[in-house]
Design brief:
This protein has about 375 residues and is of the alpha/beta class. The protein starts with 9 loop residues before the first helix and ends with a helix. It is about 45% helix and about 15% strand. It has helices at about 10-40, 65-80, 100-105, 140-150, 150-160, 200-205, 220-225, 240, 270-275, 275-310, 320-330, 330-340, 350-360; strands at about 50-55, 85-90, 110, 165-170, 175-180, 195, 210-215, 230-235, 250-255, 265-270, 315. The strands form 2 sheets. Strands 7-6-8-5-9-11 form a 6-stranded mixed β-sheet, sandwiched between helices. A 5-stranded mixed β-sheet has the order 2-1-3-10-4, with helices on both faces. It folds into 2 domains: about 50-170 and about 260-300, 3-Layer(aba) Sandwich (D-Maltodextrin-Binding Protein, domain 2); about 175-260 and about 315-330, Periplasmic binding protein-like II (D-Maltodextrin-Binding Protein, domain 2), CATH 3.40.190.10.
Length: about 375
């Protein structure tokens, strides 16, 4: 029987055991080190000081706020949390009708502002609220809005009065109506109806003989439910759904498309000028992400809401001839009124021409 004896001495055995223990310890230490490294915060792509901006908006998180949500994520991710945009919903920092005043006072750094909520406080930007403007799609609408936001006449007015600038558009889709009671299957049926509408759309509806109510978005549900209004207008389907108007309505228009309202994201110059250049660059990158988020959010809501509405609401669709008549009654005459009303305050004709020029170049 052959028996193999180890030739290692006891000293050699002890040495091997010692080395083995050292190796295990080294491996454990390495694992701990790599684990610690992995758990450390990632190095910020953009370095800079700690900055927190306050952004004020009415209502709740919805498609309308998808752009600002995208901004907040982008600047936070790129700075590893050093630059934050904190969004205050539900008018927490002040009512929507006081957003311009509160921006100027420094209550917050930025906000959604609908020019129609501030009658008399700004006139030049309201050119974007005129009905039947030639904005046939999202991209053309953006080009038109930004052309006016940056125009010497309108940008100077909001800077001089409020020390703010319109950073980007919320791109509200074309408005449509939801209502109760008599269904306006003909344009003539709008005569005598009480409707909620704003800006140029309100002017167009007046031309049809409607009585106008300019209540804010958060007041609309109760007004329609209690009969204080016969019909209410909001952008496309998303806003009607966001404010649950479809729960109390009986009918909806699907192709009136009379116009929209400009509700840009407005930033205080005082806050903007304090940002380091690298953060300003981040904000301009975030702007593009915001537009993409809005486009996707509005489209997604239409795909969900329209099929649902068609199951329990009566759809009102007008003929091409009726729509052409509406544009004739509520289009050019409203443009003429707006130009005449403002011509002594600024070159209103030049601003209206700028809208059509931007729309043409963007088509």
């Amino acid at each position: 029987m052959f028996v193999h004896y180890s030739t290692e001495t006891k000293w050699e055995e002890k040495t091997k055991m010692k080395h083995g223990k050292l190796l295990v310890a080294a491996m454990a230490g390495a694992a701990f080190t790599w684990g610690a490294i992995a758990s450390m915060p990632a190095e910020a792509a953009v370095d800079g000081p700690k900055v927190t901006w306050k952004f004020n908006v009415w209502g709740k998180k919805r498609a309308f706020t998808a752009d600002v949500e995208a901004w907040a994520k982008h600047v936070k991710d790129e700075t590893n949390g050093k630059f934050k945009i904190k969004i205050f919903y539900g008018d927490q920092l002040g009512g929507k009708k006081q957003n311009l005043d509160n921006l100027k006072a420094g209550v917050f750094d930025a906000a959604k502002v609908c020019w129609s909520y501030h009658p008399g406080k700004n006139q030049s930007m309201t050119v974007l609220n005129l009905p039947f403007l030639p904005v046939k799609n999202f991209d053309v609408q953006r080009k038109v809005a930004e052309a006016i936001h940056k125009h010497p006449i309108s940008s100077k007015e909001v800077k001089d009065k409020w020390n703010v600038f319109a950073f980007s558009s919320s791109q509200l889709p074309q408005y449509e109506f939801l209502g109760r009671g008599e269904v306006p299957t003909k344009l003539s049926a709008w005569k005598g109806m009480t409707v909620r509408s704003l800006g140029g759309l309100a002017d167009a509806m007046r031309k049809l003989g409607s009585s106008i109510s300019t209540m804010t978005a958060t007041e609309v549900y109760q007004a329609l439910d209690r009969g204080a209004a016969d019909a209410v207008s909001f952008p496309s389907t998303y806003a009607h759904s966001a404010y649950k108007i479809d729960e109390v309505a009986e009918w909806f228009t699907s192709n009136l498309a009379p116009g929209t309202n400009d509700c840009p994201n407005v930033i205080s110059y005082a806050s903007w000028n304090k940002l380091p250049d690298q953060y300003k660059k981040l904000m301009n990158q975030a702007k593009e992400k915001g537009y993409a988020a809005l486009k996707a959010a509005y489209s997604a809501k239409d795909k969900v809401n329209l099929p649902k509405w068609r199951k329990h609401l009566k759809e009102v669709s007008y003929t091409d001839a009726e729509l052409a008549q509406f544009r004739k009654v509520g289009g050019q005459p409203v443009y003429d009124d707006w130009v005449n009303k403002n011509k002594d305050k600024f070159d209103s004709k030049a601003l209206l021409d700028a809208v059509f020029a931007a729309a043409k170049s963007g088509s």
